[in-house]
Design goal:
Keywords: FAD, Flavoprotein, Monooxygenase, Oxidoreductase
CATH superfamily of the domain at 2-68 and 96-170 and 276-357: FAD/NAD(P)-binding domain
Protein name: NAD(P)/FAD-dependent oxidoreductase
InterPro entries: FAD-bd, FAD-dep_Monooxygenase_BioMet, FAD/NAD-bd_sf
CATH class of the domain at 2-68 and 96-170 and 276-357: Alpha Beta
Organism: Hyphobacterium marinum
Largest sheet: 7 strands, mixed
Number of strands: 19
Structural class: alpha/beta
Distance between the termini: 38 Å
Domain FAD-binding: 3-319
Helix content: 25-40%
Number of helices: 14
CATH topology of the domain at 2-68 and 96-170 and 276-357: FAD/NAD(P)-binding domain
């Protein structure tokens, strides 16, 4: 088959690799002149690691990242609010915190080794003839026809509405600012925790070990720092300046404020917003949506990249030469929607528990979550949700 992939992100490259290794001719269309990652760090769950293992990439990813064994969240005075361990799911389970650039570079090298062609500076603006799809670029150039088009252009997809006109993708009221910082004494990395501090629901600070930073040549391990922020508060945050921001962080978590050492401006931090993507259907003719283009959520459960990786290998598995493409895509959508629907709704339900303005919700969370993490079956369900197997728990 001749296959086009719109978008050179995690899901797009992973699907291209899986399909190319099946013998298909694959071409990736990317709007940037040079393929590049967007974002700071992410947490690869066991479900995502299983998908990477299918692609033969789990070993280099583990070498580049940092092992994570639990999520540990406390209040500013040190009271435990969340203590969720991967071993509550399966004893061998763990996550890998990784710099997005490390994951991106690993996938890019694998894609190049698989003979995939890249069209950079090629922003796809439209699709025509859904049974023999052709791509229309912003330049007016027409490419195709293709036997299959995979749309993986992210949560802010410009092609989603063409495939699924009834799709909705509102922006979450809350976002975050991120930065990758060196873990100079290795204490965060050695702890193997995604560490967080919460003050009510309005403040959430996190530090995630992410292993090597490709931008640093000295091999110092790194962490991804994040600070929760309302979408309408970005300008006020910037106007307040770096000194005020560091003081604010130090007031809640002095150890995290030490990561500001060497920071000279707020330009070190990248603002991020998120979309709650709901798509009634993921396919139209021989065109299919995957990843955040189909089911983007807030990062509260850390599932975005993992769901995209799962989509990629599931899509390749569904393509069988002896059955029509429409049947293959229907099978893919039916299977993956079960998992995606679970995580879309769980993310929607949990996001206000950690990013919001309700003091009542915060009090209930602080009372309930710690004890629930110690209750058998309940903590098992929570861990299975975390690792990416949530819908299979029962």
């Amino acid at each position: 088959m001749r296959i086009a992939v719109a978008g050179c992100g995690i899901g797009g490259m992973a699907s291209a690799i899986a399909l190319a290794r099946q013998g298909h001719s694959v071409e990736i269309f990317e709007r940037f002149e040079q393929p590049q990652p967007l974002g700071a760090g992410l947490l690869l769950q066991p479900s995502g690691l299983e998908a990477l293992d299918r692609l033969g990439l789990q070993e280099p990813i583990a070498a580049a990242g940092a092992r994570i064994d639990r999520l540990h969240g406390v209040s500013p005075d040190g009271r435990t609010i969340l203590d969720l361990r991967y071993a509550y799911g399966r004893k061998a389970d763990h996550g890998i915190g990784i710099h997005r650039a490390s994951l991106f570079d690993t996938l890019l090298e694998a894609a190049q080794d698989s003979g995939i062609r890249f069209r950079t500076g090629a922003s796809v603006a439209g699709i025509s003839d859904w049974e023999r799809p052709c791509l229309t670029l912003e330049t007016g150039e027409h490419c195709g026809p293709f036997d299959l088009v995979v749309v993986s252009d992210g949560a802010q997809s410009v092609l989603r509405s063409l495939v699924s006109p009834a799709a909705r993708a509102p922006i979450y009221p809350w976002g975050a600012v991120w930065a990758v910082r060196p873990d100079r004494d290795g204490r965060w990395t050695q702890a193997r925790n995604l560490a967080q501090v919460y003050d009510d629901c309005r403040v959430m600070i996190g530090v995630l070990p992410v292993g090597r930073d490709p931008a640093r040549a000295d091999g110092t391990p790194s962490v991804s720092f994040f600070w929760s922020l309302r979408g309408d508060g970005f300008q006020r945050w910037r106007d307040a300046g770096l000194t005020a921001f560091r003081a604010q962080v130090a007031g809640f978590w002095p150890e995290a404020a030490e990561l500001f050492d060497g920071v000279e401006s707020l330009d070190t931090f990248t603002p991020a917003t998120y979309r709650d993507v709901r798509c009634p259907n993921w396919r139209r003719g021989r065109v299919v949506l995957i990843g955040d283009a189909a089911h983007g959520t807030s990062p509260q459960l850390g599932q975005g990249a993992n769901l995209a990786l799962g989509d990629a290998v599931a899509l390749a598995d569904s393509i069988e030469p002896e059955r029509p493409a429409a049947v293959s895509l229907a099978a893919f959508e039916s299977e993956r929607k079960k998992t995606a629907r679970f995580y879309v709704w769980m993310s929607w339900a949990l996001t206000p528990v950690f990013q919001g303005s309700s003091q009542l919700v915060a009090r209930l969370r602080n009372i309930l979550f710690g004890p629930l993490c110690r209750v058998p079956l309940v903590r098992n369900f929570m861990a299975w949700t975390l690792v990416g197997r949530g819908r299979w728990f029962w």
